[in-house]
């Protein structure tokens, strides 16, 4: 899932953005967890994955925003663009990903999601399982052949 954030993302909006595979933000974007201001709780599991502990605590304890620039610096946002370019940028990325071999994208996502909390050795083992699964797919060999043929024509 690609999130395109064009303004303030509050509470669940921050959670949705953080749960996305890729986040693109406009220069107007900011990320705010205002829950502390209204006596509720939320967002810690998401922001703790992207922000240093001190910054995540500041954000959650004060309800103050994180700017798009700061979010980019910490890796919470993958790209920052002008507001007028945001949707075109998100569509272009979506089309680029959609042009790839679907089983490869599905297993790449499974590999990233599944190995996130594994140690390195277990992560490699999981990736090997997915690699074998993909290589058993009949279309995978064709995609590899097409890539190699295109490369030899250059």
UniProtKB/TrEMBL annotation:
SUPFAM superfamilies from the UniProt entry: ClpP/crotonase
Gene Ontology BP terms: fatty acid beta-oxidation
InterPro entries the record matches: ClpP/crotonase-like_dom_sf (IPR029045), Enoyl-CoA_hydra/iso (IPR001753)
GO molecular function: catalytic activity
Name of this protein: Unannotated protein
Organism: freshwater metagenome
């Amino acid at each position: 899932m690609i999130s395109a954030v064009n303004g303030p993302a509050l509470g669940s909006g921050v959670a949705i953005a953080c749960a996305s595979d890729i986040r693109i933000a406009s220069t107007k974007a900011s990320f705010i967890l205002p829950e502390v201001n209204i006596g509720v709780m939320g967002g810690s599991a998401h922001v703790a994955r992207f922000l240093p502990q001190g910054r995540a605590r500041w954000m959650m304890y004060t309800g103050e925003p994180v700017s798009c620039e700061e979010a980019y610096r910490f890796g919470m946002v993958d790209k920052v663009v002008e507001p007028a370019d945001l949707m075109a940028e998100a569509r272009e990325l979506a089309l680029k990903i959609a042009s790839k071999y679907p089983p490869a994208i599905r297993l790449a996502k499974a590999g990233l999601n599944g190995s996130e909390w594994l140690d390195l050795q277990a992560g490699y083992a999981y990736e090997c399982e997915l690699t074998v699964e993909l290589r058993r797919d009949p279309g995978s060999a064709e995609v590899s052949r097409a890539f190699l043929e295109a490369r030899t024509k250059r």
